[in-house]
Each structure stands twice: as structure tokens, then as C-alpha cells.
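Input/output pair, single chain:
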Amino acid sequence: MGLFSGMMKFAFGAKIDDEAFDDLEEQLILADVGVETSTKLVDTLRQQAKKQRLSAPEQLLPVLRAEVEKILSVGRPVKEQKPHVILMIGVNGVGKTTTIGKLAKRFADEGKSVILAAADTFRAAATEQLTIWAERTGAQIVANREGTDPAAVVHDAVEAGVARGTDVVICDTAGRLQNKKNLMDELAKIRRVIEKAMPGAEPEVLLVIDATTGQNGLSQAIQFREAAGVNGIVLTKLDGTAKGGIVIAIAAQTGLPVRYVGVGERAEDLVPFNAEEYASDLFGGDHE
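Output:
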């Protein structure tokens, strides 16, 4: 991950002093953890170093890993319901439709039945792309003509899921900027439609964020959470130039759990997020 070499360099410095803590804070900020979260982490480390009477910088790494793991372990388990409705949202170009296909494959591999709702009705290619994924994964698809009200497509898909006893309904939506009020209001309408079609339902609203966008991803998480009731994050493109610290910033400042991370192009390269493994990878884990 983006932090790894910096952390190891820090870990084997000469001693724990103000310069060492300043160095660590700089490394965290450069790795997209953000100023606010980086400062809080370093303040906690200062306190722990004093409390535990730590003397060598490498002794800070386990403390840092534990603190990051704690931050990343936010959220609560997804409510069990059938069908499990997942609403996928995000800005343009983050890989929403591809992520939906990868999710459909995961569920299919688990033996679950899946319906895909093609509610990105503004982009004809989105429905075509989703249809290909449906064929590839054995999922059913609910679609309508271009320009149809997205909420109507989602309503039909959820009703079909209830009637057919489907395990999972995954709803695609058009990409939108977080500062466009009419488009954000549309997401709120879609949520109401889901709850109407399935009273008592708690849809999993997953915001897809491109990890390479850095702090802009944090801005998206904050604004989409307020406007659309986001309750989980999917981070894509975490395999390339992304600096892994953005995961920490999002969890710390929004309280939203990361549900999945995309680590490659293949269908199986979308994996459930594991806070312990991520913190270990980010700060060296068991590496020598």
C-alpha cells in the first residue's frame, strides 16, 4: 500500500522524539489519511508512548496498527432480509457498474440468486454493460427504456425480488456529483420507493469511491451520507496509485464502514474489507 515504505523508514529511526512524531504525521498526511485524522492519531501515539514508556520507534508500529484497526472497525452488521437490497451510488467514472457485476459474481458463487436493476436510465451503455454481467453471472435483470424514471425501475426490481424469493437485488444508478441537489433528491426518492415496495426494509446504500481521488473521496462520503443515507463504502482501484490512507480518513470522519475493496480488474478482485488485515498490510504487518 502507499504507506508501507514510509512507515518502515519511520519505524527504524533513532529514537522517539518530537521529530519522529512530526515525521510520522507527515507520512500519514501524504498517504491521504488527512490532516485532522493524522493529527489525532499522532496525539494518541504520543500519549501511548508516554504511558507505556516506549523508547524505540519500532515499538510504535503495533500501537499505530491497533489504533487504525479500531478506526476501521466502525459500522454495524447488515440487517438480514430477503431480498437483500443494495443501492449502488457514486459520481461518474468510479466503476459502479463493473463493481455491481463483481458483486453479482460473489453472490452467485455463494449460491445466491440475484436480480440486477438497470436504474441508470440516462446512459444506454450502462444497461448494456449490466446485461452482459447478468448473462455472465446468471443473474436476472430488470430494465426499461432509456429515460425511464430510475425509481420505477428499482420499484419493479424489488417487487420482482419479493415475488420470486430472490436473495439479492442490486440496483445501479446514474453517476452524479454530490453538489447537484436535484440528483441527490432523486436518490432519496429511490430509497423511499424501496421502503414502499418492501415495508420495513433497510437497503444497503453503498457509495462507490475511486481510491485514487484522495481527499475528494472523503468529501464525497460526507456529502452522499447526508443526502442519500449512505451506510457503507466500496473503494475501487486500490491496486494502482491509490494511497491507502483514504480508507482511514473516511472511516474516522464519517463513521461509515468500508464493505468491499476493488484490488484489480478481474471479477474476483472485489473482496470484503477486513480491518485487521488492512491495518497490518498498511503498516508492515509481520514484515521484517
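The CA atoms of residues 121 and 146 lie 5 Å apart. The chain has a mean pLDDT of 85.
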